[in-house]
């Protein structure tokens, strides 16, 4: 059950040309406001870069 949505999107013919969409419960869905927050995404990206940079030293 945990992989149902992933399998659906990967294998169902109706989703063959779908790209860049969010799915939940085997249906296209709207991501939460947090997931759509561009400023938060920038902060997460910068934080991730710091972690990778510090790890490679």
From TrEMBL:
Keyword annotations: Oxidoreductase
Gene Ontology MF: a single term: oxidoreductase activity
Keyword field contains Oxidoreductase: yes
Superkingdom in the source lineage: Eukaryota
Family label: Belongs to the short-chain dehydrogenases/reductases (SDR) family.
Protein name: Short-chain dehydrogenase
Organism: Aegilops tauschii subsp. strangulata
